[in-house]
Design a protein that fits this description.
globular; four-stranded parallel sheet; binds iron/sulfur cluster; alpha/beta; 52% helix
Length: 409
């Protein structure tokens, strides 16, 4: 696409990157076929092609209005369009740049600013979020049904975390909301990997990966979170004792794999970020397939592949293969490439679109009559559970329970 960026951004690193991305887009529209918001709303400005056009106009110095911001806000950043695009357009990188410019040049209404600021403040703070959740559990029985759904049910206890005893060591990110919402996920991951001779450890002081604030368009604050996490991890990384950094939430894994890019302009952190990104692995990449005992499990499972896994990290089929080897019957999932509507804080900010996408996703997940829905990301799990008629679990919990039943540790 012919592009002439405006002076205010032309010579910056972001401007050069945006220009290179824009030039790759041939406006063919193939991406519209897999865009959830275009499918739902039918407006070209709610498709990747339309949003690219809006961002091009903004970056070329054209008018930027609330309407421009609305169409960018409605994007889930699910990255399905990147998987589909035959020209290799990195839409997610362009939308980061476009959103920053549009945010700067428009004024959100005070209520919108306030709720975004509240989410950016509360979600990455594990203790604060945990305290708010405990309060929610106290009042949950008294709430009317529509509000009850907003407070997740009390989770199962975490269970035992094996003491580190193996030479092979991997670092695990606890995550910001996951320890309160589902503490059993990370403990299950530690138990499963312990069986395969890998000790999973956490770093003291490790906080949010930065995704929450970055995607709420507090991009500088998000990068601060990234730098703080690198600082917390660095002593262990430097000692060279870690084989990998593991994520049980694919959203965090996708973000950390992108640190090398997101901190590329930071001379102080650039090299560290590259090293961290190279070490980052989704859990399914480190649970060994060949060593998994076959046929220890039974039951029908529908796997909801989070966008951050299949589009963000381009990992497909690995979880399903591990579940099937263990003995689960994985049921077919129609339109598995489409987002469930969770998308970080999107479900809180765009509840109508998120609710409709969830209803569609639940319908397709439950078509194969599964006894359980499995996922690989805490956001999707918390979003889907209230609407599902079967339990929604992290896949590692299913594997952990199957192994514990058949093969005592
Ligand atoms: S982003 Fe890719 S698929 Fe979409 S219009 Fe541009 S070139 Fe075509
Ligand atoms: S990231 Fe997802 S919602 Fe956004 S334009 Fe691409 S396909 Fe559509």
């Amino acid at each position: 696409m012919q592009t002439e960026l405006a002076e205010f951004i032309r010579d910056s690193a972001a401007g050069k990157e945006a220009e290179a991305i824009l030039r790759k887009c041939v406006h063919c529209g193939f991406c519209t076929a897999t865009c959830p918001t275009y499918q739902l709303l039918g407006d070209d400005l709610d498709s990747p092609r339309g949003r690219i056009y809006l961002m091009k106009r903004a970056l070329e110095g054209g008018p930027v209005t609330e309407k421009t911001r609305l169409h960018l806000d409605r994007c889930l950043t699910c990255r399905a369009c990147e998987t589909t695009c035959p020209s290799g357009v990195r839409y997610s990188r362009l939308v980061d740049i476009g959103r920053a410019v549009v945010e700067e040049r428009t004024a959100r209404p005070p209520w919108d600013r306030a709720r975004r600021a509240l989410l950016a403040f509360a979600l990455p703070r594990t203790r604060l979020f945990g305290a708010a959740l405990r309060l929610g559990w106290l009042v949950r029985p008294l709430l009317p049904a529509p509000f009850k759904e907003k407070v997740p049910a009390r989770p199962d206890p975490a269970g035992e975390w094996p003491a580190p005893r193996h030479a092979r060591k991997m670092l695990l990110l606890a995550g910001c909301v996951q320890p309160a919402l589902a503490p059993s996920i990370n403990a299950a991951a530690a138990r499963v990997l312990d069986r395969f001779g890998i000790s999973l450890v956490e770093a003291p002081g490790a906080g949010c990966c930065g995704a929450v604030r970055f995607h709420l368009n507090y991009q500088d604050a998000g990068r601060d979170d990234m730098r703080a996490l690198i600082d917390a991890w660095w002593p262990m990384v430097e000692r060279g004792e870690l084989e990998a950094i593991v994520f049980t939430a694919s959203g965090c894994g996708s973000t950390v794999k992108d640190y090398a890019h997101l901190l590329a302009e930071d001379a102080q952190y650039r090299d560290k970020a590259q090293r961290i990104s190279a070490l980052a692995k989704d859990l399914c990449e480190v649970v060994p397939f060949d060593a998994l005992p076959a046929g220890v499990a039974s039951g029908r499972v529908a796997f909801q592949s989070p966008c951050s896994l299949q589009h963000g990290q381009q990992i497909r089929g690995m979880v399903e293969a591990r579940l099937a080897r263990a003995g689960f019957v994985t049921t077919p999932v129609r339109d598995g490439h489409l987002c469930c509507g969770s998308a970080g804080s999107y479900s809180l900010l765009q509840p109508e679109i998120a609710g409709e996408l969830r209803a569609r996703k639940i319908e397709s997940l439950q078509e194969g009559a599964p006894e359980c829905i499995a996922t690989a990301n805490i956001g999707c799990l918390a979003h889907l559970q209230p609407a599902a008629s079967v339990p929604v679990r992290h896949w590692i919990e299913l594997l952990d329970e199957a192994l514990a039943r058949k093969i005592p540790a």
